[in-house]
Amino acid sequence: MRMTLEPYQNRPTRAEISLANLRNNLSIVQSLVAQNVQIMAVVKANAYGHGIFEISRELLAHGVQYLGVAFLEEAIFLRSCGITAPILVLGAINTDQIAEFIQHDIEITSSSIEKSLAIDKVAKELGKKAKVHLKIDTGMERIGVHWYNAEKFIDVSYHCDSLLIQGIFSHFAKAESDPDFTAEQLGRFDSVLTLMDKKYFLPPLIHIANSAGIIHYKQSHYTMVRPGIMLYGYNPDGYLPDVTFNGKKLKPVMTLKTKVSYFKVVPPNTGISYNHSYHTKNQTRIVTLPIGYGDGYSRQLSNKGTVVIRGKKYPIVGTICMDQCMVDIGMDGTAYNGDDVLVFGEMDGVSIPLEHVCEKIGTIPYEIICSIAPRVPRIYID
């Protein structure tokens, strides 16, 4: 029997997921697009670390029509959970998996002539039709046929009898930072749409807009948009807490918390943690937290991170271990075993914005929330 280690729901370290904040963020997306524009919620990478099934179920219950994932196994997992909504795998496919796509009614990205032909062949053998979205590369240089080579790709795909061309799409490279290049990408995409419309017909689903596209480029909405990071409460333009969208602010969905697990008084000139990267200057109080890089709390935050205990911010000191880290609360600080500790998010009116954590180690919210380990239980709060 194959066994998996499930996260312990009463573990002190946990990620609290606010479904109310998720709904708030979805309502912002809905307010920014026309009513006839469909929404594909991007739930890849375990819904950016938030829990792919629970997040998908909530979004579908509140008006999302499509789900976007990165890999076949994510889509099959959702099907096994009873999700029947349309699902598109956005990444390049392995042709050995085509039959499983079709058998599970999962929509396929075709990113080349060879992929379209391979999908068509397997679909014919199964006596079924394969639902396909054609991927056009307008400047990301990741997957897809270049816009200037798209004509033959479209011709071949439209002549594949066992393909149902459901959509055509591309992806912005710099929509949050470069309006000129984004306009160029839109022009390239539009040229492909014009060609397709003249020779054949436009599929029902035309999509390129990510979160930044939704916010800044109404002309990029076409018939579907693909919100990702904004659903989870982060502005693709950076930390802008006062920005509103039709009167509403984006609200982070995840709050990472732990609890004090140990407390001790440490004398001056004492080294803390591996390799003693921190030494106490004076006698002080050190508390230990049961969270480390094995939970996704980056080792790069050693001697840089801060946490909140009893409403006050204190520094992470010493090297962050795999499963634990230490905090210097000073001789005036107060902490007891079992006290809640805020790692990022908001607790009792005090906040540690995730964007501030990211600034300390030169990364982005996407990376940290996607890195929160499966062993950290997700606690869903309505």
Describe the structure in your own words.
This protein is α/β, with parallel strands linked by helices and 382 residues long. It has 2 domains: 19-232, Alanine racemase (TIM Barrel, Alpha-Beta Barrel); 254-352, Lyase, Ornithine Decarboxylase, Chain A, domain 1, CATH 2.40.37.10. Helices cover 29% and strands 24% of the residues. The strands form 3 sheets. Strands 1, 11, 12, 15, 16, 17, 18, 19, 20 and 21 form a 10-stranded mixed β-sheet that branches. Strands 2, 3, 4, 5, 6, 7, 8, 9 and 10 form a 9-stranded parallel β-sheet that branches. A hairpin with a 5-residue loop joins strand 13 (271-272) and strand 14 (278-279). The longest helix is centred in the middle third of the chain and has 21 residues, at 179-199. The two termini are 35 Å apart.
At a glance:
This protein is of the alpha/beta class and 382 residues long. It contains 11 helices and 21 strands.
